[in-house]
Structure formats: structure tokens, C-alpha cells
Amino acid sequence: MNRLAIETSTECCSVALQVGADVIDRKTTEARSHATRVLPWTHELLAEAGLGFGELDSLVVSRGPGGFTSLRIGLGIVQGLALARDLPVHPVSSLATLAEAADPDQRHSQLLALLDARMGQLYAAWYGRRDGQRERLGPELLVDPDQLECPHPGPWIAVGPGARAFAKILETSLGDKIEWSAHGESVWPDASALLRLANNVSPVAAERITPTYLRDQVTG
């Protein structure tokens, strides 16, 4: 299976290529770098693997939520590649990708994935574990940080840049219901995590990809 994944939902821009069991990637956390990074990295990875676009089996992309402009860059590039090569696309949640990046071995049974939505708000999703699989509990949220309500008793492990940005408010509003991972606040959604989640999402044709913004205003 040859798959290309593109993640541009946040300031972290990443591209990953899966060839069989092997994954190679490129990643940087640099605001507004997505437009200049994604296609060059895509060509670099394919050249490194000795593949052409015609040898890809599918594409994987973050559908959001996330920054309006950055999401559009990733989705636009993936839709163009998919249409040109008639490739199916796996659209994966950026919050699910964050949870996967923060806890790939599923050591935590209760996880709170948080992205900074700007304008004093968070993109948030609560994740539990059932039958050995991580599952989202309830909808993805756009919420004021002091309005988050735990779906079950804690502790919940808070991960992602949103946890770092609103740590003091979350500590006040949720108290001992949440805990902080040693490295979870520095983790971003990335394309390698996207690849690991691809099989959990049914592929669609390029024209059927629907971005998840959760708000209509531009968020960066």
C-alpha cells in the first residue's frame, strides 16, 4: 500500500509517505509555511521512495477542524492530486490525529484533545477506549475553555497546543478532572499519525471531501 498524507490544520505542516510498512516524512512548525512546503516535500518524498504519483493507491488529508486558510491549502492540494490521478481520499479529523500523535500506544484510557481555535476558544474532543480502540465521546466542539464539561469522571489527559494555550483557565474550570501529559502539550497533529488512522475512515472521491471548520470566520 502506497499512501501520501498531508496535514495542514495547524501551524504544524507535515507530509508523510507510506510505502508498505515504511513511512518517511517531513515536518515543521512554522506559521504560514504550508503553501511553500507541501508540494516540494511531496515531490521529495516520492523521489526518495522511487515512486511516481501514478503508483499511489490513496491519499490521506486532515479535514479539520483547524485554521481556515491552512486547511484550505492542504485540502486543495489533495483534491487536485486526487482528481488528476483518480485517487480515493481518506479525510481524517485533526483532533483524532492529535490524539493519535500524542498517544500512539493508547496508554491513556481518557484523552482530551485540544487545539487553539483563536478568538479565545478551543477546538476540543473527548476520547475514551472501548474494545481496545480509541473512540470519540460526543461531537467535536468549538468552545470557550471555561465551558468544557467532562463526559465522565476524570482524570482526563489533556494534550495539544490548546492545552498549553489555556492551561490556567482549564486548571481553574476542571481542576483535578484533568492531568497534563509530560510531552502532550507540545504535540501537534501530524501526517504520520494521519496515515495510522487512514483505515478507520472510509475513502471518498475528491469532490466529496467536506472540511470541518466548526466556525464560519477565518481562524488563521
Q: Keywords, please?
A:
29% helix; Nucleotidyltransferase, domain 5; 10 strands; alpha/beta; 220 residues
Oligomer: single chain
Q: What is the rounded Rg?
A: 17 Å
Q: Quickly count the helices.
A: 6
Kindly identify the CATH topology of the largest domain: Nucleotidyltransferase, domain 5
Question: Which residue ranges are poorly predicted, with pLDDT under 50 across at least 5 consecutive positions?
Answer: none
Number of domains: 2
Describe the structure.
- The protein is an alpha/beta fold.
- It has 2 domains: 2-93 and 189-208, Nucleotidyltransferase, domain 5, CATH 3.30.420.40; 95-186, ATPase, nucleotide binding domain (Nucleotidyltransferase, domain 5, 2-Layer Sandwich).
- 29% of the residues lie in helices and 32% in strands.
- It contains 6 helices and 10 strands, in the order βββαβαβαββββααβα.
- The protein has helices at 34-49, 68-85, 94-102, 161-165, 167-174, 191-197, and strands at 2-7, 12-19, 22-29, 58-64, 89-93, 111-118, 121-130, 133-143, 156-159, 178-180.
- The protein has a 5-stranded mixed β-sheet with strand order 3-2-1-4-5, with helices on both faces. Strands 8-7-6-9-10 form a 5-stranded mixed β-sheet, sandwiched between helices.
- The chain is globular and about 50 Å long.
- The mean pLDDT is 94.
